[in-house]
Amino acid sequence: MSTQVLINGTVISGTVKLPGCGLYIDSDGLIGDIFNMNRFSQKRFPEGTEVIDVHGAFIVPGFLDTHIHGIGGWGTDDLSGDSILHMSERLADFGVTGFFPTVYTDTKERMFDAIEQITEVIGTETGAEILGINVEGPFISHARLGAQNPFGVQSVDLDLFDELIEKGKGHIVCMTVAPELKNMRELALRAIKKGIVLLAGHTNATYENILEGMQVGILHSTHFFNAMSRLHHRNPGTVGAIMIEQDMQCEVIADGVHVHPDLIKLLLREKSVRNVVLVTDSLKPTEQKEGELVANGEPAVLGHDGAFHRKSDYDTLLGSALTMIKGVRNLISWEIPIEDVMQMAAGNPARIYDIALKGKLTPGYFADIAVLDEHIDLKALFIRGSMVRNYL
Questions:
Q1: Is the model more confident about 14 or about 202?
Q2: 280 is in which domain, residue-wise?
Q3: Which alpha helices (H) appear in 312-387, and where do they start and end?
């Protein structure tokens, strides 16, 4: 691999904003150095190093989307490895360098098939890397189903949990569960032994249920405010627990529809930014260019609010049409500092899911890099040092 150096940018390393800097990518696809441009003339790079002037753009970590069902007309519910590879390629258009294809709650057979199809193509992708598999359910609450298939919902079954994990051949990273379910404590302890991160979601848990879940390692949560028990003055519920308990982490869908922008700003006043993860939870027709839009198996229309609605009943919200770059752009427009946004989009998911050498721009880490202009439009994307998108 040839060496490259990006110059004249503002580097967002992880938690720090560094104006007037450059970044060197070595021949192993790793970040070799980050330096102030005042030192550029003194630097010595290998012969043939390509110098790329980004003209003041932001140089940021590539985005990690750890909760995504589909994009571009391709989805995990297609039960097709080819669809997963198309998702990988399309995601690179939006600054994503790594993702977790997310399997819906469904019949056992369809969940097994979806997991197997993803597993078979890991390592063959040409766009965003598949960094693991996210399983949303099936041990969730009928009272907070959202868009999940009610026929797939199961009571806690340790044998089924083991079967799901075995189908993933070591690639399943996380699972959404309802902490209030009977025998959830036993499942959570088993998840710890298998290295699976459990998220509280699609849950009708009381505040006390969440605290009990935290005792056995359920410290993350699925799409804050959506499909979870509400904040109430006599029972803070799941929403209240996430806001009150500083050890609780949470996903946010920053499209301005699933959660009001001011509630996200309130969340970030109450909770450390390091415990908040930006996700899209996007559905199959997100950024689809042609053909009928189908979301969760139903004909859909893209609403004026930017989310998918049922075609036959516009008042029914089907789900998210967000991309990571739109989410980043939205958060910045809501006056959240770009260095905080980059933690939410890259650093935090890498830490929470223990994704090695990703999520930050620091020497020795993989050169997974997005270059963004002042409008937060993608100008270039590097995955492990290879430039896979170039609009400079």
A1: 202
A2: 63-352
A3: 324-333, 338-342, 348-352
DSSP 308: E
Two tokens at 55?
């003209």
pLDDT digits (tens, 9 = 90+) for 17-30: 999 999 999 999 99
- ∠ Cα 283 225 372 (to 5°): 55
**Does the global pTM surpass 0.85?**
yes
Whether 128 and 243 map to the same domain: the answer is yes
Give me the number of domains the chain comprises: 2
User: What is the arithmetic mean of pLDDT over 204-229?
Assistant: 97
The domain that holds 382 is classified in CATH as: 2.30.40.10
Question: Residues 279, 294: one domain?
Answer: yes
Residue 153 and residue 145 in contact, taking contact as beta carbons nearer than 8 Å: yes
Interatomic CA distance for residues 345 and 174, integer angstroms? 17
CATH number at residue 226: 3.20.20.140
- Beta pairing, strands 17-25 & 31-36: antiparallel
- Helix-strand-coil split of the chain, %, nearest 5: 30, 30, 40
Distances (CA, A) of 376 to 101, 161, 273, 340, 372: 25, 41, 20, 15, 5
DSSP calls for 7-22: EEEEEE-SS-EEEEEE
Distance CA 391, CA 220 (A): 36
Sign for the CA dihedral angle at 184, 186, 191, 197 comes to positive
Query: Measured in whole angstroms, how far is the alpha carbon of residue 15 from the centre of its chain?
Result: 18
Query: Are the C-beta atoms of 333 and 19 separated by less than 8 Å?
Result: no
DSSP string, 296-317: TTEEEEE-TTSSEEETTEEEEE
Q: At what angle do helices 158-167 and 108-121 cross, to 10 degrees?
A: 30
